[in-house]
Write a sequence for this structure.
């Protein structure tokens, strides 16, 4: 059933942009790793292996017709929820939270895969329930549940960053599918009323944590210090950067999580404005390209999938880079393709595979 | 499709078409592009506009974090006398990247500190894997003289850092060492345990005693500051500070006077003294001999000192009051008597005959008095500590009923005192023996158990809690070592309240019979513990002589002639005043031979000192 036209329609541009981002991520990680402790070369090679696996996953994701995803969305979603439950019961404790499932020698972070599953079920649901007038409360009940379950399970790990990403993506897809005006106004009013009430019921230390989250300067020994070091690292890159393997010597050990959440600081220090602006533009291009695929797609499930994936990459890129540049609160959200982390790599490559799938089948008629 | 639907609901049910979606995609695009423009602007601001400044700041990693260690909480006795203090000590370290030229600096440093150059180099080598801006510790507690020399010559010693660090000072040296414990640098095993999740390498933690069990209370919260330093690593300005929160102060349950009295009383023997308030479970004194000076753990040992400490056969580091297990010997007859009375196998009128031995299973079980006690009832059997009487009570009860009362008296399980390494002791049952040795219980063994020999094992603290329970009428309290906890500004944040661990399953009448026997021990002319009597105060008690090895029936060897390590342990448990007990005491003297001669005088003096003290001041907390 594999059609020759599919190869002719293959989205080479998307593949090229993906590989460019992956390559710059690997180079940055190599730079971070070569500077010595605590990141070692092992991180770099492990990441390389994950990308190898990611390419296979990506290939697998465009070989079949993406409409099958519509069919199996709830099964995939159910499996992901089961994995999240398994994490809470038998997950691996690392630094006070349970996020990983150990499967033999590799450990998986199911919350990364859940992001894709949520996009899938919401695309399926909205492709059937969206109306031109917009959805009311009754139609929104199911998506709230579909988002709420993984949200709560991930908050319990606890991994606030990932949990919030899921809500933000779900909100984006929902607004895209249109909410009835009256309902939207209601939701906003409810939000404005309940937030102060919740605030009253929070305990002192919980309020403190939220305030620090919004204003890192309130925690000069933790988040506040990290942001200062991150800004120094980025700023010191100037126009052309200190060069590969050069910049990290100084600021590396001051940056927390410099191979995961703060990798953009390392990249900016090495390559300066020239390099980091190109990375930002690559991300922008990727998102526009993803939306363009949605634009060209002719069935609502495909459109919603493409929009959801673009939203995922867009939000993560904006939140992560905004955070390391001191524009947004400090949250543990990885930079897609660049940050170290196997599960994030796999789910991103899976997303790219699905996008390619939608892209190459937009001219096909069945 | 909804072609046939009425026009009003048409919009509501109309399924969006591709053009509808396309319009919305354009809206999304219009949101994404400005967001990225904002990010690019920020990047431009940081790297181009402010780039020069940030480059300068990055050159020397000018912004650093310095930890501010909180002072550890102090420890006082119940009346506020200082037992554990903090003293300043000066620690020398060096920041390698600032100490240029390194070799010349080290040579000078070696001259001023009289530390060999090789030793300095090997310290630096040890920390080779850490970033070069982090200080390498070289010498601790350098003393004021060396401090002065280093300060004067500081200009030719770039990169050296002298930190003031607080060190523990155990004010009264050996006194209460086992209760206080000591602190030390966190070990790598401790670092791995979740209990110490918030600790870092080279942190100081409690390693024993109250220092360990109350680590969370004493520790306080670490603070820190963000500082800007210059190229030589010297402080330019403090950017932000988070103050450390000092640890809380602990007031222990005992008075130092009585504690030191108890320590002095057992100073020249090996053993333990525990005194308790029978109405609350508060520990009034807890001494273990031999002892050690916890300051040695702070200031360092010589190899020789350390060897001596750990190879001492009498285990100075062990808190014998809670860690060492001994056979309870005749003190256990209190439990056998309570069990016999309550189970109805005897009453206060029951008399049994003691010819000096008891024939059972073809064997003679001896009484300690070869001539025998004749016809004897339970109070007299307690007073004279007749073995044969209690052999028979034990046989009538059986081992498991005896064990029930022993466990109800708190034996065989942890008392719950907040000190680490407490031992649980052992109360044998027939089930236990089957599990442990895979053979059934022998009735003959019940005889030994009934007089506190055999498999029975108790700690001095357990026996003290047991006699305190008998004294107060049957309420067993959890022993408390802390009376209150205050924060650094003196507000009481926790006050110890008596905590009930259980009740004796013995009726008041039966308990009174036993207490009469215990009164006779000290006050009747035939009592075995007469030496424990205090003129003007009524004391009750029970002696015990625990055999270290089993006595052969035809053994004629004199106890005094035996090698010391084979001599029996001496017990005395007591309380006073008999009608309204204010203090319960358990004394164990290792190899003291007889409870009466070795242990009872110690208990007597502890009681005398406590009652004299508390009669001169009506409330125990009058000092506050």
């Amino acid at each position: 059933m594999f059609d020759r036209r599919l190869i002719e329609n293959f989205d080479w541009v998307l593949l090229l942009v993906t590989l460019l981002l992956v390559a710059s991520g690997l180079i940055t990680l190599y730079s971070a790793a070569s500077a010595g402790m605590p990141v070692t070369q092992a991180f770099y090679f492990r990441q390389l292996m994950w990308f190898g696996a990611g390419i296979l996953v990506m290939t697998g994701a465009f070989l079949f017709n993406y409409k099958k995803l519509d069919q199996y969305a709830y099964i995939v979603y159910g499996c992901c929820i089961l994995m999240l439950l398994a994490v809470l019961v038998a997950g691996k404790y690392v630094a006070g939270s349970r996020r990983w499932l150990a499967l033999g020698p590799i450990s998986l972070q199911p919350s990364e895969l859940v992001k894709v599953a949520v996009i899938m079920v919401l695309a399926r649901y909205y492709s059937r329930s969206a109306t031109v007038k917009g959805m009311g409360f009754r139609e929104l009940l199911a998506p709230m549940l579909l988002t709420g379950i993984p949200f709560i399970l991930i908050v319990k790990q606890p991994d606030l960053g990932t949990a919030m990403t899921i809500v933000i993506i779900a909100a984006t897809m929902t607004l895209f599918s249109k909410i009835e005006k009256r309902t939207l106004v209601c939701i906003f009013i409810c939000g404005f009323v309940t937030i102060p009430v919740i605030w009253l019921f929070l305990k002192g230390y919980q309020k403190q944590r939220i305030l620090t989250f919004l204003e890192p300067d309130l925690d000069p020994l933790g988040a506040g210090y990290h942001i200062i070091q991150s800004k120094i690292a980025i700023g010191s890159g100037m126009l052309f950067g200190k060069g590969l393997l050069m910049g990290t010597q100084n600021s590396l050990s001051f940056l927390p999580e410099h191979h995961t959440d703060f990798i953009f600081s390392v990249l900016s220090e090495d390559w300066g404005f020239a390099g980091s602006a190109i990375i930002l533009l690559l991300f922008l291009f990727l998102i526009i390209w993803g939306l363009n695929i949605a634009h060209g797609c002719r069935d609502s499930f495909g459109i919603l999938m493409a929009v959801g994936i673009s939203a995922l990459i867009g939000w993560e890129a904006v939140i992560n880079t905004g955070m390391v540049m001191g524009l947004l609160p400090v949250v543990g959200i990885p930079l897609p393709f660049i940050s170290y982390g196997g599960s994030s790599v796999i789910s991103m490559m899976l997303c790219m595979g699905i996008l390619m799938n939608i892209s190459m089948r937009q001219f096909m008629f069945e | 499709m909804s072609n046939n639907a009425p026009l009003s609901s048409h919009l509501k049910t109309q399924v969006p078409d591709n053009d509808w979606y396309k319009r919305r995609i354009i809206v999304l695009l219009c949101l994404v592009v400005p967001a990225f423009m904002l990010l690019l602007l920020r990047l431009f601001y940081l790297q181009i506009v402010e780039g020069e400044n940030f480059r300068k700041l990055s050159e020397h990693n000018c912004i650093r974090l310095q930890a501010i260690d909180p002072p550890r909480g102090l420890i006082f006795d119940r009346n506020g006398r200082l037992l554990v203090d903090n003293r300043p000590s000066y620690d020398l370290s060096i920041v390698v990247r600032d100490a240029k030229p390194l070799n010349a600096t080290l040579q000078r440093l070696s001259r001023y500190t009289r530390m060999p150059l090789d030793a300095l180099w090997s310290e630096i080598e040890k920390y080779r894997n850490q970033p070069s801006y982090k200080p390498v510790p070289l010498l601790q507690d350098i003393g004021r003289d060396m401090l002065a020399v280093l300060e004067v010559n500081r200009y030719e010693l770039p990169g050296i850092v002298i930190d003031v660090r607080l060190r523990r000072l155990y004010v009264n040296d050996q006194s209460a060492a086992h209760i206080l414990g000591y602190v030390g640098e966190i070990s790598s095993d401790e670092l791995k345990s979740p209990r110490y999740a918030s600790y870092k390498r080279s942190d100081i933690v409690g390693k024993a005693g109250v220092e360990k069990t109350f680590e969370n209370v004493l520790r306080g919260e670490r603070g820190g500051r963000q500082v800007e330093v210059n190229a030589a690593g010297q402080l330019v300005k403090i950017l932000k500070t988070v103050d450390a929160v000092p640890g809380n102060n602990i007031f222990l349950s005992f008075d130092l006077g009585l504690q030191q009295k108890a320590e002095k009383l057992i100073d020249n023997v090996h053993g333990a003294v525990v005194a308790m308030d029978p109405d609350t479970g508060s520990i009034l004194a807890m001494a273990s001999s031999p002892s050690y000076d916890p300051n040695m753990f702070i200031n360092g040992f010589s190899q020789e000192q350390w060897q001596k400490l750990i190879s001492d056969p009498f285990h100075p580091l062990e808190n014998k009051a809670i860690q060492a297990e001994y056979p309870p010997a005749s003190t256990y007859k209190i439990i056998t008597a309570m069990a016999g009375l309550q189970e109805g196998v005897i009453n206060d009128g029951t008399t049994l005959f003691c010819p000096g031995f008891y024939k059972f299973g073809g064997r003679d079980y001896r009484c300690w008095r070869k001539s025998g006690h004749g016809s004897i009832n339970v109070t007299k059997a307690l007073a004279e500590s007749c073995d044969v009487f209690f052999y028979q009570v034990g046989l009538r009860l059986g081992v498991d009923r005896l064990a029930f009362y022993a466990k109800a008296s708190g034996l065989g399980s942890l008392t719950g005192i907040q000190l680490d390494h407490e031992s649980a002791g052992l109360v044998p049952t027939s089930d236990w023996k089957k599990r442990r040795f895979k053979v059934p219980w022998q009735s003959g063994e019940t005889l030994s158990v009934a007089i506190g020999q055999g498999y029975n094992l108790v700690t001095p603290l357990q026996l003290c809690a047991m006699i305190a329970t008998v004294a107060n009428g049957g309420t067993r309290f959890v022993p408390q070592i802390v009376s209150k906890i205050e924060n650094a500004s003196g507000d009481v944040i926790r006050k110890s309240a008596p905590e009930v661990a259980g009740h004796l399953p013995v009726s008041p009448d039966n308990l009174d019979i036993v207490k009469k026997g215990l009164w006779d021990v000290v006050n009747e002319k035939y009592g075995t513990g007469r030496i424990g009597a205090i003129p003007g105060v009524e004391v009750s008690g029970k002696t015990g002589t625990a055999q270290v090895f089993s006595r052969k029936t035809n053994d004629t060897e004199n106890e005094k002639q035996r090698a010391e390590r084979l001599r029996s342990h001496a017990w005395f448990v007591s309380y006073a005043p008999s009608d309204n007990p204010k203090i319960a005491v358990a004394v164990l003297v290792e190899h003291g031979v007889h409870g009466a001669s070795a242990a009872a005088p110690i208990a007597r003096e502890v009681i005398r000192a406590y009652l004299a003290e508390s009669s001169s001041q009506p409330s125990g907390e009058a000092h506050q």
